[in-house]
């Protein structure tokens, strides 16, 4: 069975749903292919920065999500070796928010994006098996045996992207670091300020952050070879919990209390991956009418908190670029019309790729360097971090977040 769609998006994560919504706001119809049989709204809460909120405002859902989010008012950083305070930065000055940072539950964000889409826009149980060229069109073959012909194919299918693989992009590499994450809910208010509490150094990087008045998210990133982490521990939540508690025991009673309250079903461990930044600059992130967005384009380590934010940026930019290409009327005549349409699609996607290459390079590189500086156990870097670099990494984080992807409008 074969059918035709103008624009096909692979993956119903943040990038895929936001891209579909951006196109919908401009009057362009698209469908999202999702391999799961329902919305995958797993995970805890996300930290969304200024750039993300500007993108959500462009999509028309910013104010609604703000009502269900917690505003983060600042940073507190400490030494992960001694627990001594290093740096405190406020995001609020004279009762005015300088940088917008909020915690939003991933489930709330995905459901809001999905609910704003027209009925039938998301096709569940639609796993992409392969992609084939058919003249200027692309044939997307699904696991159920059906095929979709499309004028535009956008890969929003994450770190192990089928679309990125078809484009010939190198696979993401292991950063050499891992992350243990946890989420804890309190029966009553936990009492912590809405600030990011971070502990750096000694080969580890801890942090915890309120998600709302009754829940907290925490993490521990580390280099297994440096801290002698047993790889067999990754699938055992009890051992993961004991590992983090041991590392944090001499650092912070507050942090240990948070970790101790965490139930085992709310603890997980992953290896941190990234796409090599020069692969984004030099690789095929676009080929004619096929491109990639979000983690399919620029998987990065979580040290800037920009994973979801960057995906939202990408989504608004690609919607604008395709809107400028396709919303305007084109000449009459079927052959001329088709040729001109594909030419405009290619130029629109080329504009998107040009705008996002360097931005993606910056995301990946800055995140990796920030993690290296914050986590390093080197005595030299520890000294510089406690006297200089902690402020620099926070400043870089805020500067990267202070980006405006623009509004969804066609000139």
Give helix % range. Answer: 25-40%
Count of beta strands = 20
Question: Could you give the distance between the termini?
Answer: 39 Å
Q: Biggest sheet, open or closed, and with what strands and sense? A: 8 strands, mixed
Helix count, DSSP H or I runs of 4 or more residues = 12
Structural class given helices, strands, pairing? alpha+beta
What percent strand?
Answer: 25-35%
Plain-language structure description:
By secondary structure, the protein is α+β, with helices and mostly antiparallel strands. Helix content is 38%, strand content 27%. It has helices spanning 14-25, 50-59, 62-66, 106-115, 162-167, 224-227, 237-248, 253-260, 277-282, 307-326, 334-375, 379-401, and strands at 2-10, 31-33, 45-48, 70-71, 74-79, 85-90, 92-93, 96-97, 102-105, 122-123, 128-134, 137-142, 147-155, 173-185, 195-201, 204-212, 215-222, 267-274, 286-287, 290-292. Strands 1, 2, 10, 11, 12, 13, 19 and 20 form an eight-stranded mixed beta sheet that branches. The longest helix has 42 residues, at 334-375.
